[in-house]
Amino acid sequence: MYLAQDEDTIAAISTPPGEGGIGIVRISGKDALNIAQTLFVGSRRQDLRSVPGYSLHHGLLLDPDSHSVLDECLVSVMRAPHSYTREDVIEVNCHGGRLSVRHVLEAVLRCGARLATAGEFTKRAFLNGRLDLAQAESVIDIIQAKTDAGLQLAVQQLHGKLSTRVELLRQTLQQLLALVEASIDFSDEDIELISHDRISSELQSALAAITELLAGAQEGKIVRDGLSIAIVGKPNVGKSSLLNVFLEEERAIVTPVPGTTRDTIEDYINLHGVPIRLIDTAGIRKTDDHVERLGVERSRRLIEQADMILCLFDTSVPWTEEDDAFLDMIRKKAKILVLNKIDLPAQVSVHDVLSHFSETVPVFQISISEQLGLDELKQEIVDEVLDMPLESVAVTNVRHKQALTQTQKSLTHAENSTSAGMSQEFIALDLRDALQHLGEITGETTTEDILDRIFSTFCIGK
């Protein structure tokens, strides 16, 4: 792989916008030390160009034109190749006000640095061999992690949990391809360097390894990206009350009057490590009220978009046509049936509700007012979406899953060719395709377009 590399010295603000104790301006590139020295007057008159790496220096930062003091600061010096980008890196630690950080960055840019693009520091870390592409992607996952479990998975990716397994698989397939190609080269001399049986055995082992990686991909995606769950039902069945219970706060207004919720209410919760976007929808019913009707229509759209549905029923009142109406909307969705108000005399049984479904559907009986069955319901939600322990998950990124799926297809083609006794040229072709797709995960095989798409999701200072 060869990718053209920009040799500009780049700079950006690396701390979030707003007021804070410290603001950091990061500089990376061959002129980083010279630019910093132009602006910096050390308390001990030290020259940043001659100080050792991993050192911190106190002083003043001066405007390059007027020589007025911009701020008092601490300057971190990290020398290539022992830095995040493997280039010379300077981090100016100044006061964290909006103006002070911006003025420091502007001064750095006037001295010859270029404003970094989104994710450019991490892109340089990848291009300089500091990180592979899967590890580079984990950086933004760490920044954007919504739960402790998501953060833990992202840190494991940064430390090479997936990359190590992919690299071992690549080495195995490269060795297999080398033997297959050697057999092709010596085919005229009637020398078989590797038999079809051994090729088949190696391919089956590789396919088993990929299957194991893909097994936790759905769980990884859920922990990384989260899950949207819509709470649906006819009016006054307890949807807003259930939302408040999950959020542990009075987020939604609750009254005995049907149709109180006229718009959707959304919020995030952390459920056993799974980030969940909960959506309280307007009660599904026919209504002449224009505002309520708009809320019902919006609820219908959100039901279509949700990953899972919590279908709420009030067991203290008889089954009605309104219950039938919204059941038709959710038949094809992943769902959990929730029977509320079991503390009151029952007018509807579990059997009555399940009789409207031909498939097996999980059902839970709860009482929101009496706090009955709620912990079991929360656990069921997690059990429904996570089929394996998170410790076994290695794939969290859709791009990685797609590359592994393509690798799996190529190896399956190779295995079919081997079983059919076809020429080893066909097997070699499929092995090359498999290696191409595997290389996309770690960046051994990639393009500028792919890199631009990945790093555009980063913040500018990272």
UniProtKB/TrEMBL annotation:
Subcellular location: Cytoplasm
Location (main, coarse): cytoplasm
Molecular-function annotations in GO: GTP binding; GTPase activity; identical protein binding; metal ion binding
Binding site for GTP: 236-241, 255-261, 280-283
InterPro entries listed in its UniProt record: G_TrmE, GTP-bd, GTP-bd_TrmE_N, GTPase_MnmE, MnmE_dom2, MnmE_helical, P-loop_NTPase, Small_GTP-bd
UniProt family annotation: Belongs to the TRAFAC class TrmE-Era-EngA-EngB-Septin-like GTPase superfamily. TrmE GTPase family.
Function summary: Exhibits a very high intrinsic GTPase hydrolysis rate. Involved in the addition of a carboxymethylaminomethyl (cmnm) group at the wobble position (U34) of certain tRNAs, forming tRNA-cmnm(5)s(2)U34.
Protein name, entry field: tRNA modification GTPase MnmE
Organism of derivation: candidate division KSB3 bacterium
